[in-house]
């Protein structure tokens, strides 16, 4: 049950974050992950994982699609600027950065829920 | 407890977001930058992602823009206002970041973007009078040009106004800043940016120092006004049919040692080739015009191809993004091109301040108040710097006790032709409309700077060359040294009339050509001096064109890529000869033998080119060691030309300059040649250790991104040629910044060309650097020239319509 819940959270977080991001700055991913985590209750660690994977996977997928569609033209240059040995590492770093922010956002949302709805 | 847990988590989240939203050192704000929706990923382009339609407030009629397969826009407008507005939008769309960065550089504002590491350079730009010149340029501009840059600014701003972080050009995201509003002054600044590269080469202070240290006789020997070889741009011996003007005043120069840490001069190799063959020499009977301009290579490229069409005007060529007109190219009837005229158009005046406060300076016997201008230099992440610059009757004081000079009571004021108002844009505006020789001449009457050898060819069969600029009238040797700034009579008073500038049309030899050499033969009745005139490319071009009476396009492509070094052919035999009798090892003998067999071509696979190049460089540095040393001690001297060096070596082998003063013995040219040879052998041994080498791998040509960030540039380009002295002037980072060949066929003008970059300024576009390989190899693109917007052409890959939203 918990793993199903986490899966739903991951998908919903990714979806909401994508919607927010088309209109708002990048940090709107925090709003997405914390909101989803607030609505669907899970334990702290599961919340973090949900947010981390939701945003991390969203960013991973989008970066990968762009990378493939554009023959890595800009990925390669930016990887070079950051002295990274290959393009995948840049995509990975992108995903982890997004994931971290999403994860902490989700954690915050989940802790907010257990503070304001202590009955659970 | 639960609230605490929540607050800690909230705090961490906010802290991470803030940290990732902020630029730290040279690392961009990682969250913002790596965001795949709005960050740098959004700048990666799979194909053409331009909008089909775009609206610009104020357009009178719809404008159609057809893009061909090189991403060259062909802009069709119904009137000029619409055309210039559209071209503003087009330039901004592809090159906004570069336009702003270059104009910031010109205006001394780079510190705003990169922080205090640019402060010294920014101060220099302002103290040279770059902004002063740009303001004068705009202030006195003719109505047509002023209107053009106003419309252009509207187009640029229409693009800027709809940008959001998501659509910012890549470099804004990398450096984390925002574009600002484009102004008409910026068009002027960009023009001064070019003028500074081309029109501020001089050596007045260095000449003054050299004369003081070594005397006038040696100065004349080492830095002659005219080369021992003179194959000038215009050669009309004894047929200059005008009476030269004269002036009342004669100038007084100063014998002095000027101890200043001078600002970096423009690259001395900045120059160009151009030539045009007339009907009598052309295989098809149509005139053909060629041009290639040698500059430091940058990404995004300086140049942008575009076609501008409205009503009477139909012009194609290279623009400088930031300026609405076509700078060089062709209309449906004529073609024109440039090489730099090299002339000395900067003078320096020694100012006597009353005291170190710089409030008053001595002029014609009395201390008069100095005009002071406070320059506000904003610095990223630091406090604003205020620099007070003194303006004299001659111009701004560049160097004084507040900048690069120790002298308490003296300042050095700079007088530059580009401080003055100029009708240069009127020239471009007019020549973009030109139909024939008469129009070309009339257009050029407005052209004052940067002084250029302006070449011309037309479908009517005319060819011409005009050494056009606004040249101060100088008596013999005036303008060559630091001038006395206490006398107003030392200022420039008169200028050589346009109709006295060196010029010829349809010369008997059937072609016109220039490569930055001396403008005119020895019977030209005015005194001329320059930083230096070119000695080798010009003679080689003339030699090839003289010998060819059936010139084809193929011949001219070959001439663009001609790797023969006249310099090597005129120096290497002497260098080898002077090695006679030296005790050489077997390996050394092998190198000498291979050099003896060398044909003097700087082909990309040549090894001999490497041997010669290093040998000559080491020799050069060992001959002029005194000059290098003096520079180290802050008494700047100028490096003599290669030609002067070779002449000294051949004609004055026992000259004192060959003696190394640090040794007890007296060295001769033979000693230095041997020394340089052995130094070369050492370097070659090091090269061999690293693997095989060729001229191309040794030279290692590259295009540098404006921010000097390596992954944004283009490196290890395979190419022959050599900077400065070879017609194919492809050096390491200085080379032909474009090449164009234009055939003036009355049935339709045809053109071929390329430049080392691409039409897009976006490092995430395949059009960012797609022309580099063709440029290196010698492949030319057919440049598409359309006659109407409805023409069906298979090369058109995208069409865009601009409309007004009102």
List keywords for this structure.
B: 806 residues, alpha+beta, eleven-stranded mixed sheet, six-stranded antiparallel sheet, 28 strands
Topology:
The complex is a heterodimer of chains A (120) and B (806).
Chain A: H1 2-23, H2 28-39, H3 44-69, H4 73-81, H5 87-116
Helix pairs in contact in A: 1-2, 1-3, 2-3, 2-5, 3-5, 4-5
Chain B: H1 2-20, H2 30-34, E1 53-55, E2 63-68, E3 73-77, H3 80-107, H4 111-114, H5 119-128, H6 130-139, H7 143-161, H8 170-175, H9 184-199, H10 204-214, H11 216-222, E4 271-277, E5 288-296, E6 298-299, E7 304-310, E8 313-319, E9 328-331, E10 334-340, E11 346-352, E12 360-363, E13 366-369, E14 371-377, E15 385-391, E16 397-399, E17 410-416, H12 424-432, H13 437-444, E18 452-458, E19 463-468, E20 483-484, E21 503-505, E22 511-514, H14 537-547, H15 553-560, H16 566-577, H17 586-597, H18 608-623, H19 625-632, H20 642-651, H21 669-689, H22 695-699, E23 701-705, E24 714-717, E25 734-743, E26 750-754, H23 772-777, E27 781-782, E28 796-803
Parallel strand pairs in B: 1-28, 3-7, 6-23, 11-20
Antiparallel strand pairs in B: 2-3, 2-28, 4-5, 4-22, 5-25, 7-8, 8-9, 9-10, 10-18, 11-17, 12-13, 14-15, 16-17, 18-19, 19-21, 23-24, 25-26, 26-27
Verbal overview:
- The complex is a heterodimer of chains A (120) and B (806).
- Chain A is mainly α and 120 residues long.
- Chain A has one domain.
- In chain A, 82% of the residues lie in helices and 0% in strands.
- The two termini of chain A are 17 Å apart.
- Chain B is 32% helix and 19% strand.
- Chain B has a domain at 566-600 and 607-693.
- Chain B starts with a helix and ends with a strand.
- At the A-B interface, α1, α3, α4 and α5 of A face α1 and α2 of B.
């Amino acid at each position: 049950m918990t793993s199903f819940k986490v899966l739903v959270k991951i998908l919903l977080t990714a979806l909401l974050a994508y919607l927010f991001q088309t209109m708002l700055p990048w940090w709107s991913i925090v709003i997405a992950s914390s909101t989803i985590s607030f609505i669907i209750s899970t334990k702290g660690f599961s919340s973090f994982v949900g947010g981390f994977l939701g945003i991390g996977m969203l960013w991973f997928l989008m970066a990968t699609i762009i990378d493939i569609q554009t023959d890595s033209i800009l990925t390669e240059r930016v990887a070079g600027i950051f002295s990274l040995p290959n393009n995948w590492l840049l995509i990975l770093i992108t995903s982890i950065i997004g994931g971290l922010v999403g994860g902490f956002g989700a954690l915050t949302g989940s802790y907010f829920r257990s503070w304001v709805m202590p009955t659970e | 407890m639960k609230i605490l847990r929540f607050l800690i988590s909230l705090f961490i989240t906010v802290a991470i977001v803030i940290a990732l939203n902020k630029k730290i050192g040279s690392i961009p704000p990682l969250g913002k930058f790596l965001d795949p929706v709005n960050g740098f990923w959004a700048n990666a382009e799979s194909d053409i992602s331009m909008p089909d339609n775009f609206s610009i407030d104020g357009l009178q009629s719809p404008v159609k823009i057809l893009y061909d397969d090189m991403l060259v826009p062909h802009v069709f407008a119904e009137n000029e206002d619409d055309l210039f507005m559209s071209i503003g939008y087009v330039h901004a769309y592809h090159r906004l970041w570069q336009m702003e960065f270059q104009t910031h550089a010109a205006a001394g504002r780079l510190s705003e973007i990169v922080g205090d590491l640019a402060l010294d350079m920014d101060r220099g730009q302002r103290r040279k009078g770059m902004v002063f010149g740009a303001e004068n340029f705009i202030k006195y501009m003719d109505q047509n040009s002023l209107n053009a840059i106003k419309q252009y600014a509207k187009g640029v701003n229409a693009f800027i106004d709809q940008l959001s972080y998501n659509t910012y050009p890549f470099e804004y995201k990398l450096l984390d800043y925002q574009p600002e509003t484009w102004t008409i002054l910026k068009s002027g600044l960009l023009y001064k940016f070019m003028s500074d590269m081309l029109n501020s080469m001089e050596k007045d202070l260095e000449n003054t120092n050299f004369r003081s240290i070594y005397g006038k006789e040696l100065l004349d020997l080492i830095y002659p006004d005219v080369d021992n070889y003179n194959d000038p741009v215009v050669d009309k011996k004894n047929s200059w049919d005008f009476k030269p003007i004269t002036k009342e005043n004669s100038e007084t120069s100063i014998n002095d040692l000027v101890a200043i840490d001078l600002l970096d001069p423009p690259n001395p190799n900045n120059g160009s080739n151009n030539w045009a063959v007339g009907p009598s020499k052309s295989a098809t009977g149509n005139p053909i015009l060629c041009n290639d301009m040698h500059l430091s290579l940058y990404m995004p490229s300086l140049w942008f191809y575009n076609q501008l069409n409205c009503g009477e005007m139909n012009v194609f060529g290279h623009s400088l993004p930031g300026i609405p007109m076509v700078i060089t190219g062709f209309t449906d009837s004529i073609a024109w091109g440039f090489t730099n005229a090299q002339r000395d158009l900067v003078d320096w005046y020694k100012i006597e301040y009353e005291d170190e406060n710089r409030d008053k300076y001595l002029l014609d016997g009395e201390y008069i108040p100095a005009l002071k201008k406070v320059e506000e230099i904003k610095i990223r992440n630091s406090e604003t710097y205020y620099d007070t610059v003194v303006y004299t009757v001659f111009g701004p004081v560049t160097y004084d006790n507040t900048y690069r000079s120790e002298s308490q009571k003296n300042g050095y004021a700079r007088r530059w032709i580009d401080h003055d108002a100029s009708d240069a844009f009127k020239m471009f505006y007019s020549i973009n409309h030109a139909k024939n020789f008469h129009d070309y001449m009339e257009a050029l009457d407005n052209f004052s700077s940067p002084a250029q050898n302006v070449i011309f060819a037309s479908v009517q069969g005319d060819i011409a060359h005009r050494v056009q600029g606004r040249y101060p009238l100088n008596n013999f040797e005036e303008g060559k040294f630091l001038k006395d700034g206490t006398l107003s009579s030392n200022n420039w008073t008169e200028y050589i009339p346009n109709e006295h500038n060196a010029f010829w049309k349809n010369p008997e030899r059937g072609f016109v050509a220039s490569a930055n050499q001396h403008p005119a033969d020895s019977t030209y009745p005015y005194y001329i001096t320059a930083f230096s005139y070119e000695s080798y490319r010009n003679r080689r071009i003339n030699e090839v064109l003289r010998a060819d009476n059936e010139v084809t396009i193929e011949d001219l492509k070959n001439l663009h890529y001609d790797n023969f070094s006249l310099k090597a052919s005129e120096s290497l035999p002497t260098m080898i000869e002077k090695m006679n009798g030296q005790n050489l090892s077997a390996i050394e003998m092998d190198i000498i033998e291979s050099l003896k067999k060398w044909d003097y071509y700087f082909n990309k696979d040549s090894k001999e080119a490497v041997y010669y190049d290093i040998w000559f460089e080491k020799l050069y540095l060992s001959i002029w060691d005194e000059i290098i040393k003096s520079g180290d001690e802050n008494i700047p001297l100028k490096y003599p030309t290669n030609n002067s060096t070779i002449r000294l070596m051949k004609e004055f082998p026992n000259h004192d300059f060959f003696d190394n003063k640090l040794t007890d013995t007296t060295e001769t040219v033979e000693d230095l040649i041997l020394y340089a040879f052995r130094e070369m052998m050492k370097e070659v041994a090091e090269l061999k250790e690293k693997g095989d080498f060729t001229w191309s791998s040794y030279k290692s040509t590259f295009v540098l991104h404006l921010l000097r960030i390596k992954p944004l540039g283009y490196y290890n380009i395979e190419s022959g040629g050599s900077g400065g002295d070879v017609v194919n002037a492809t050096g390491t980072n200085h080379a032909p910044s474009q090449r164009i060949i234009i055939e003036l066929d009355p049935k339709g003008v045809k053109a071929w060309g390329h430049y080392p970059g691409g039409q897009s300024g976006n490092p995430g576009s395949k059009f960012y650097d797609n022309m580099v390989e063709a440029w290196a190899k010698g492949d030319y693109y057919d440049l598409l020239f359309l006659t109407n917007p409805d023409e069906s052409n298979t090369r058109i890959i995208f069409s865009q319509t601009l409309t007004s939203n009102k």
